[in-house]
Amino acid sequence: AQSVAQPEDQVNVAEGNPLTVKCTYSVSGNPYLFWYVQYPNRGLQFLLKYITGDNLVKGSYGFEAEFNKSQTSFHLKKPSALVSDSALYFCAVRDMYSGGGADGLTFGKGTHLIIQP
Amino acid sequence: EAQVTQNPRYLITVTGKKLTVTCSQNMNHEYMSWYRQDPGLGLRQIYYSMNVEVTDKGDVPEGYKVSRKEKRNFPLILESPSPNQTSLYFCASSPGADTQYFGPGTRLTVL
């Protein structure tokens, strides 16, 4: 069975400082990894994904994530945080060999990111 | 505009009164899913569909039904809602083993 862990319920960062939101995963095969963001009263929005290739993935709004196979991690990062980055962030994983697109996507419990002015 | 729409956005109902939450996508995606979001539990998949007339259970299917008669629509049906189905529901679609596009959510309260 696959799983995702987001060890921090909340991360607080001062505006302008770098931020990291942690994610570790477990799959039996090779992973597809995703980060989504949810703003208050909104649906989830796609930020970035890792399928294969370069371990450093760049996404929307200046976010990036680094795939680390040995540590089974996919941490979300941004060099300089903005107050508008405050939101709920979800990491998700799917086993590359689990079949069709909609099944088998497992989400973490989410991390609240709070950027303080 | 490419989007996933859900209706209604908010619904308050009573135990046992059948309801349907509609979901529609205009991106010609084959794959569609329903999730529920609960505090501290993240998103959990209820049902998914890989194509018209092809549906399967996700992680928490009990108390829910779905149908996929057309490619664009994937309604979620609660035949006899109970208070433990009070939650925030999201529909999503995807072109395949890739990014999912989420609807705006339906907040359901069952009294």
Describe this structure in words.
The complex is a heterodimer of chains A (117) and B (111). Chain A has no helices and twelve strands. The termini of chain A are far apart. The model of chain A has no long low-confidence stretch (mean pLDDT 91). Chain A is mostly beta strands and 117 residues long. In chain A, 0% of the residues lie in helices and 51% in strands. Chain B is mainly β. Helix content of chain B is 0%, strand content 51%. Chain B has strands at residues 4-7, 10-13, 19-25, 31-38, 42-51, 54-57, 65-66, 76-78, 87-94, 101-102, 106-110. In chain B, strands 2, 4, 5, 6, 9, 10 and 11 form a seven-stranded mixed sheet that branches. In chain B, strands 1-3-8-7 form a four-stranded antiparallel sheet, with no helix packed on it. In chain B, strand 4 (31-38) and strand 5 form a beta hairpin. The interface between A and B is medium-sized, with 23 and 32 residues.
